[in-house]
Amino acid sequence: MNAASLVQRLAVNAQVKRLGVGAQRVVKVGFLGPLSGPVSSWGLPGLNGCRIWVDWINRTGGMLIGGTRHNVQLLAEDCGYEPDRAAEGARRLVQDHGVGLLMMHGGDTFRPVQDYLMSRKILTSTLLPSDLSPDTPYLIAPSEIHPLYNVTAVEWLARNRPDLRRVAMCSQTDALGLPSLATYRAAFAAEGIASVGEIRYAPETTNADEILRAMLAGSPDILCWCTSYEPMVHALTEAAFRSGFRGQIISCTADYYRRLVDRTSIDFMEGFLFQFPDFDDPELRDKAFFFNRPAEFFAEYNRRFPDSWSAVSWEYVATLDLWHAAVEKAGTAAPVSVLAAMKHGGLGEHAFGIAKWAGSDLFGNDNALIGDWPVVRITNGQARIVAFGSVPAWLQRHGGRLRDEMRALGLMWDQRHSGVSGELRIAAG
Fold it and tell me: Start and end of every Leucine-binding protein domain (predicted)?
């Protein structure tokens, strides 16, 4: 396996004599994500990270493919997390521009374009492995394994705070929220933590105070926001602060968490658990991760795009890094060949270490790269990694429980899921 990082490959490429004058050929990459609207914090920061990556690659002469240098051209379409806009954007990127890789956020915006992309054998990436099925052979989840990694923070919490025994959860009823709800259900149940309230709300809901009141009715020790959108995470957290709640909060993401610290207090945010580190974290400094020299990337990102670092700022870049390695290994950017090179040997170099291509038990194919994932805790107003949890080890112990919870919500690949009512509902524990 080629263990070279992006930075290492760039250093080597910079020393290779350029063939011809400059990079005369172009390989095109498409970005189809939410660049506006309530999900934009999971789209635009990712595009910004890709811009840095493309600049780094092209600055050293481009990608070396089959002995010829190619510049990378990044083409972006804003879907706003709207299925119709996603379908239009996908067709423009594929038909008008001929992209060799299409990066998507996934979820409700992937489903309308699934048949179109798969029938054309377009190598497509998603941040949501719940998009995977036997009908998506050219769809990969190589950088984020949402929501599987959420189990690591629950496991850490149970180990370090065994006194916390009651949880209330909330989730929006879409392809982001429901798989997350199923995963948190399984994770808390595996630790013997009782659910005392479960709120499902429509994605367009904005009344955080109403949701919070319903969650607090069961007197929970823990409030879990699941994978609520960034505006709702902020609204719920601020509502909890105003309510006087001083227990544990856990969430998939905490984008722009410093704003929450400013709007609440350092003491209130102490111990807030989520899954996405800042890349200047000391725990990343000396690790031989595939995403090498993360602090350098973090510094350039914040210099060029200040106050916009989010959960996805690095994730599309991690996908590009894996794709780059596979293209050079295959000697071609042809999607089928690149996919074969990427999955050769069954292992891949995930952002946080070596991971395995797996997922057939949950998703119907092995196109998810599953490995370790960090647990992040806010301490004195600063996000810091407190542990790396093994997702494969958890699945080995509790995978059956997770499958049961996914099936209960109609989320398994072999189910036809017609959707869940978006009305505010409470499921008593």
Answer: 27-381
Distance in angstroms (rounded) separating the CA atoms of residues 226 and 182: 9
Task: Give the separation between CA 326 and CA 337, rounded to whole angstroms.
Answer: 9
> Tens of pLDDT along 32-88?
999 999 889 889 999 999 999 999 999 989 999 999 999 999 999 999 989 999 999
CA–CA gap between residue 420 and residue 173 (Å, rounded): 6
Measured distance CA(117)–CA(140) in Å, rounded: 12
Distance (Å, rounded) from C-alpha 170 to C-alpha 193? 16
Say if CB 345 and CB 1 are below 8 A apart.
Answer: yes
Question: 428 by DSSP, 3-state: which?
Answer: coil
Name 297's Cβ contacts closer than 8 Å, sequence gap at least 6. Answer: 49, 52, 279, 291, 314, 317
Question: Shortest CA distance to 429 belongs to which of 184, 163, 194, 185?
Answer: 194
Burial of 345 (0-12, 13-18, 19+ CB in 10 A): exposed
Contact criterion met (CB below 8 Å) for 346 and 357: yes
Tokens representing 233? 């995470």
Q: How far is CA 332 from CA 20, 68, 74, 121, in A?
A: 18, 10, 18, 15
Beta-strand relationship, 101-104 and 68-78: unpaired
Task: Write out the DSSP string of 260-309.
Answer: HHHHS-HHHHTT-EES---TT-HHHHT---SS--HHHHHHHHHHHSTT--
pLDDT per residue over 123-181, tens digit each? 999 999 999 999 999 999 999 999 999 999 999 999 999 999 999 999 999 999 999 99
